[in-house]
Amino acid sequence: MKKNLTAFVALTAAAALGTASAQGKISAQSIIVNPTQPDLAVSVNVDKDVAGTQNPSYRAGENIRVSASVNRDAYVYLFNVNPDGSVDQILPNRLGGDNFVKANTTRSFPAPGDTFTYSVDNIIGQNKVLALASLTPLNLDQISAFKSAQDQFATVTAKGQAGFAQALSIIVNPLPQNSWVTDTAFYNVVAQAPVSTGSLFVGTNVANATVILNGQRLGGTNVTYSNLRPGSYPVRIQAPGYNDFATTLTIRANTTTSLNVDLVPTAPQPVYQQPNTTGNPILDLIGGLLGAITTPAQIQDPARSALDQKVSDLQNQGYVLQGTRTTTTGYVSTMSKGAARVTVTVDRSANRTLSVQVTETTLYRY
After folding, report:
1. Structural domains for the chain
2. In angstroms, what CA-CA distances link 168 with 20, 341, 342?
């Protein structure tokens, strides 16, 4: 269990201890135990095994919580010995890790409501957590210390099971036999399973289109996007001047899913202009007959009136006006409807006559 905000590692089996006045000894399941069976009791467990009797597995990087409870007011010290033999001190610490626990209550680390989490490190193997409860505070200066003012966890100087057991015996042997007790919990760290991902290729006929996957912008089109989690996702493709394209597709692990789309241009909305009026019913009638608005001083160019009338007829058929330009002899307007393109040409001819020509061109994709 690493001494940082993201990792716990492990405790392993025990080694020999020297005997002293407290007669601390080794058991098959613990690093050190009090052989006198005091009336003080401590119980430790991890969150996947609240009973503290099993050996649950955690994947590397998975969050973990350690809890200890006592039957009398006591100071609780939590340690971990990693599979490689190194030892970490979990409690006390500088993260608000007060280790005094009231009788018949539980101290968890991290505690509910803490703003940090712990996760198991990637040291694979069997882990053991040791809880040591004492009726009086213990001086751990001989076995652990904070290396700097910034360290949040103390570093245990003892190395290996035998070294840690010997160091603990020095701490507990001078104590009254009924004043301390230990308990252990086990868990196993296994390798993190690799996450299989898929890829997505999106192709379009528009260079500046944008791909949106599951509400998140991926980027442009005609690109392959990798490391996507498998699953079904909504996809939207957008480009200025084109209708959005939306669909749902499935991304599969270790496979590239392809999506090819021809975006359709957005038809411009016709602009409706409110006809002007002269206020004179007779002139308005004449203007309507000529296809143009008249004023008392001037009647609009008949060529433009003829053009406006023909454009209006085509608009009623669903064509959309794209633009109008003036020529030396009249006017030319371009219109569209789907793949069809129409050119309306009005020319002034001799003898005060007008020539109106409509040319249509349709584009087909093959």
Report:
1. 25-190 (2.20.130.20), 198-261 (2.60.40.1120), 281-362 (no CATH)
2. 12, 92, 96
